[in-house]
Specification:
This protein is α+β, with helices and mostly antiparallel strands and 121 residues long. It has one domain: Gcn5-related N-acetyltransferase (GNAT) (Aminopeptidase), CATH 3.40.630.30. It contains three helices and six strands; from the N terminus they run H-E-E-E-H-E-H-E-E. The protein has a six-stranded mixed sheet, covered by helices on one side.
């Protein structure tokens, strides 16, 4: 990864953005399994959330754990909820968001679901 691109991950203003990473180990080498992040939308006291998990590591609960920990951090920061964009055919990702236990409003625009997830107490 180019140094400038890597700086986006390591030089983070945590008052505006949160990034967490999950690593695995294969012998002496570490490898990236997943990344989760949110970017705060100050006007609404919410954040746009996104995450990814390597294809060969999916369906193991890693995305769910990323989302739960991001939710924990967001609530500690006083945020009210998340927004996310999900391709309508991506049912596993939609299921992860449904398990969050938030109040979800959904709109669709050209095959992309726009989710507004407000946290419950």
């Amino acid at each position: 990864m180019h140094h400038d691109r890597l700086q986006e991950f390591v030089a983070i203003d945590y008052t505006k953005k949160m990034v967490i990473m999950v690593f695995g180990q294969d012998g002496p080498k570490d490898f990236l399994i997943g990344v989760g992040e949110y970017v705060i939308v100050e006007e609404t006291h919410t954040a746009d959330v996104a995450f990814m998990v390597r294809d060969d590591c999916q369906n193991r609960g890693i995305g769910t754990e990323l989302l739960h920990y991001l939710t924990y951090l967001a609530k500690r920061q006083g945020l009210l909820g998340f927004t996310a964009s999900v391709i309508s055919e991506n049912e596993p990702m939609l299921h992860v968001f449904e398990k969050l236990g938030a109040d979800i409003e959904t709109t669709i625009d050209t095959g992309v679901l726009e989710l507004m997830m407000m946290f419950r107490e």
